[in-house]
Amino acid sequence: MESTVLSIIKCFGSELFNSLKDTDNDINEIRIRKDRPVLVYKSNKPYIVTKQGFEQFSLDKIKGEYIKINASQIKNAFAELCAYSVYRFQSDINNGFITVNGGHRIGVCGTYIGENGIMRSVRDITSLNIRIAREYKECSRKLIDITGCNGGILICGVPSSGKTTMLRDISRIFSTEKMLKVSVVDERGELSAFSRFENSFDLGFCDIYCGYPKQKAILSAVRTMSPDFIVCDELTGQDLDSVYLTVNYGVKMIASVHCDCIENAVKNDSLVRLLKTGAFTSIVFLNGSVPGKIENVYNIGEVQKLYE
Fold first, then answer.
1. Rounded to whole angstroms, how far apart are CA atoms 156 and 8?
2. Are 143 and 173 spatial neighbours (Cβ–Cβ below 8 Å)?
3. Is 54 helix (H, G, I), strand (E, B) or coil?
């Protein structure tokens, strides 16, 4: 397993580290819950972690020698993952995750702490979900061949279906082979896994806005970097003005949203509003069973007939 993932696992103690240190590189997630079995996911299938490694999950296995992590281990590991400066990550934590070196995102569950309806913190963390980021070069080749480089692309899929992986590879190919000017809005540090002036992933010749709020990065890019394309992850209805801005400046956009199929897409008011901006000429749905696998590609004209 790659070194950055091993450094994460090591935070939870030697027992878990020794069980997973020789594991291959096809694990997608490691789910840690207080005093419950540690589970790993491969191709979205769960496996229970034992002292000997891991094996297919079943309720019967819970009675065996599985590895579990207690509250103290979770607390100490989380502090270490935040480089003992939890406050620095507070904004991300309030959104339910932190991003660590290597672009790996760790989902956080615990007790909500708020004041006057505003979230201030999370305490008593009981669950962590380590989503392992990987680079699959050439995974977007088929999509590029289908859609070309002439318009915006909206990539849709369920969590862990490979949306970010696809965006990363498109950015690399567009900026190198196609010699297009690409600005990447890497709000959470997942696309590039940028750390100490180095990218863990190859984004070719892109201009990378790392850690910027999406709206500010897009505004800066269209005003100062003269991009042909802007690439960003996980658009929401709150990003509508920013998407319109790219259209008004004549900049094409490649982005992702959470959605599983075309039938649900045309029922989603926020997603339909994004499609109506004119920023996208193609909408793509990923399979979900294998990261980056394409299920369907639609021309925007086909989709318009379904929601108009």
1. 29
2. no
3. strand
> Is domain 141-307 annotated with CATH 2.30.140.10?
no
**What's the CA gap between 252 and 150, in Å, rounded?**
8
Query: Cα dihedral angle (80, 82, 83, 86), rounded to 10 degrees?
Result: -110
> What is the pTM (predicted TM-score) of this model?
0.85
Tokens for 152?
A: 């915006």
Render pLDDT for 16-65 as a digit per residue (tens, 0 to 9).
Answer: 999 998 887 688 899 999 999 999 998 778 999 988 888 887 776 566 67
Domain boundaries, the chain: 3-131, 141-307
Give the position of tokens 């490694």: 53
Report the candidate in 44, 105, 107 with the shortest Cα–Cα distance to residue 293: 44
Query: Would you tell me which CATH number, out of the four given (3.30.450, 2.30.30, 1.10.3470, 1.20.1250), belongs to the domain 3-131?
Result: 3.30.450
Q: Using an 8 Å Cβ cutoff, are 243 and 261 in contact?
A: no
